[in-house]
Amino acid sequence: xxxxxxxxxxxxxxxxxxxxxxxxxxxxxxxxxxxxxxxxxxxxxxxxxxxxxxxxxxxxxxxxxxxxxxxxxxxxxxxxxxxxxxxxxxxxxxxxxxxxxxxxxxxxxxxxxxxxxxxxxxxxxxxxxxxxxxxxxxxxxxxxxxxxxxxxx
Length: 153
Fold this sequence. Notes:
With 153 residues, the protein is of the alpha+beta class. It folds into two domains: 2-56, no CATH class; 59-148. It has four helices and six strands, in the order ααββββαββα. It has helices spanning 2-26, 31-57, 102-106, 131-148, and strands at residues 59-65, 68-74, 81-85, 89-94, 114-118, 121-125. A hairpin with a 6-residue loop joins strand 2 (68-74) and strand 3. Helix 1 runs antiparallel to helix 2. The longest helix is centred in the N-terminal third of the chain and has 27 residues, at 31-57.
């Protein structure tokens, strides 16, 4: 339902942006007074389109190869990337993610139920996963990392 609302809102915002741009183009003397409205509409359209693209085509990709763990987002304007040597990954666990504000999760900027501990920091991935999926992914990735780590002997 929220995606449908955002889709309609984005359409209305883009129409308003087009009409407003045409109005400013035909009456350039109003740019000083109303230029900020055009800029606000442009920023709102950017975030709304980013949300729609994330909902329709967004994915979080995790790759373990050549001694590296790589995480990145696809299908969104706001890209989050993380590349670590396998030895730098301290732990991977799952969590319900009750601490990330809804507004951050909503726009696809942050949050997630899979936690990657590295260098004393934590990164979250798996925004749209259920808790059960996050547990399975964390367990599988932890197992694959253990297999890929060089043996201590």
